[in-house]
Specification:
Order of helices and strands: EEHEH
Strand order of the largest sheet: 1-2-3
Radius of gyration: 13 Å
Structural class: alpha+beta
Number of domains: 1
Low-confidence stretches: none
Helix content: 25-40%
């Protein structure tokens, strides 16, 4: 049986380094690390590369909400 999908947030609104992802709750490496996306860690948004533009609070809140919606949908689909 697959493990549950959860939201993982690194950083905060206004920070120059952040990552919002949805990952399996047993993906310890994904929780500890930035990146490492794949079948058990899905990217919602991040701020990598040479330009580090922060997200405003309203955009940050929407991105976190989207991550929760994605996790809920994945968990719902797998429980069928």
């Amino acid at each position: 049986m697959n493990t549950k999908w959860i939201v993982d947030v690194k950083g905060c609104a206004g920070s120059e380094s952040f990552e919002i992802s949805v990952l399996r709750d047993d993906n310890e490496h994904g929780k500890r690390s930035y990146g490492w996306f794949g079948n058990d860690k899905l990217l919602i948004t991040h701020n990598g590369g040479p330009c580090h533009w922060p997200l405003t609070q309203i955009v940050w809140d929407k991105a976190v909400k989207l991550a929760h919606e994605v996790a809920d949908k994945l968990n719902s689909e797998e429980s069928r």
